[in-house]
Amino acid sequence: MVQIPPAFTLLPQQCRMINASEGVRLEVHSGCLWLTRPGDAVDRFLVAGSVIDLHEDQVLLQSDKYPGAAAELSARYVLRPLCAPSANPSRQWFQRLTRQVGNSVQGLADVSTRATLRPARGAHGLR
Fold first, then answer.
1. Strand, helix or coil at 73?
2. Residue 123 maps to a domain
3. Which single residue of 25, 32, 78, 86 could bond 66 by disulfide (Cβ 3.0 to 4.6 Å)?
4. Domain membership of residue 99 as a residue range
5. pLDDT (tens digit per residue) in 40-99
6. Is residue 66 a contact partner of residue 10, using CB atoms and an 8 Å limit?
7. Same domain for 64 and 36?
8. 3-class secondary structure, 99
9. Contact predicate 45/64, CB 8 Å
């Protein structure tokens, strides 16, 4: 039996943050969605029939006015996993943990790099 994913609805100007790090396909069924992804230089506007694959941790979706429409409408969409979920819960837990630790280590490395790039007091002959 094929399981049909539930459709979600965003009311006009309503937004939702989703975690798509496991990979999901966003399919817009009606209305217009404003999509903001981390690291993407531009926002995207998706209308009914649009499909996009997402892989980012924090993706912001907002219902927006359909281009040329006089009134704002709700947006209806479906999120489909790009691959079958792992049946092993401990593996899923370990994957989440390594992602979180990796992000924390990267954050510490960024802070450390910024701290080492600052000139020390007196380095330029100032006291």
1. coil
2. no
3. 32
4. 86-116
5. 899 999 999 999 999 998 999 999 887 677 777 899 999 999 886 555 566 666 666 666
6. no
7. yes
8. helix
9. yes
